[in-house]
Amino acid sequence: MLCRRPPASSPELKFECKRGSTRNMGGCITRQERDPRPLIIDVQQVIADEVWGMFCDSQTCWARRFLKRSDYIVDVPMNYYDFEEVDQVVEVRNQRGGHSRVPERTESKKKKLAGSSKDISKSWRDLTSPEHVGLETDFRNNTVETQTYNFKFEKTRKAAVNVNYQKGFSIGNKTKFSVGLPKVLPGGEISSEFSAHVSVTKTTGETFEETLTTTATSDITVAPKSHYIASIVMEEYNLHAEFKVTVNMSMPAKQAKAYIKDKHGDTVFYYTLKNLSHLFPQNKIEVDDPKRPGSKKAREDAVQFVVEGVLNGVQMSSHKIKLDSQDLEGAEEARDRKMLMRSAANAAS
């Protein structure tokens, strides 16, 4: 015979039960309350706790006294669930501590980048002060003949962006979502497109590493009595951005299975889950109720999570090659004139 749970106000003495529930001396089970608003929800653990509770409810009052969760395996296959990204927003912050402004809405303090948006202005500047990696090569021709020099440059640069999240969901010690990295254009502009997408699978975050090799080969012709300087400047930008990724968790088959197995691997209990909104009430998705026009109801087969986190690291931008020329004779005359003026000033003193 199965017994029923006592009312919440029942004064019956309780003693410890394994994860997810408590047992009282009368044998009936009442679940321990979960944190109503955890920052990161372990969806697999929530389902496992529910299945274990249903298994305990299926036992007699006497049998429940001897149940130990450590004697069983709660198997929650995740192949019954689909995780779909439905929206993504990245807000880029500049080095001065503020957020970049949206040209169309000057009151906004943040720039939003959506992966599907095509109407975001590309006129953003001064998002962050660039770091310059430069190299100069001098070509000096003291002869009266034109000289040709071979210019060759090659440099490999590495950059990394760390992705960490502080709110959202996990699947055990893993997770499943992706984040777009803002594309930095020459001059510090931010494009409406993403330069890459980082797939995040670890709850501890991911690191996106990029290696870029810059090469340049050219023949430089230097006129007689001329001095040429070839300069290469490569820009790197410090990136600090906040992101929000909206992910829907659904059951394509409208239901999912879970099992309780003993230590030998034999199934002793199975459970069919049909209502996700019951397990995740804070994450329910409301839709129109066809039976009650003008009313809403929660979808039973899907819930929604908003993943919030931070992008932090360095991104590489473009490189520029600049060629400056100078007349050696003119430069020497200017130098001689400067030296004469300095000598005259010293003599006068």
UniProtKB/TrEMBL annotation:
InterPro entries for this protein: Aerolysin-like
Family matches, as SUPFAM superfamilies: Aerolisin/ETX pore-forming domain
Pfam families, per the entry: ETX_MTX2
Q: What are the TM regions of this chain, as residue ranges? A: none
Q: Where is this region: Disordered?
A: 94-118
Protein name in UniProt: Uncharacterized protein
Which organism's genome codes for this protein?
Answer: Littorina saxatilis
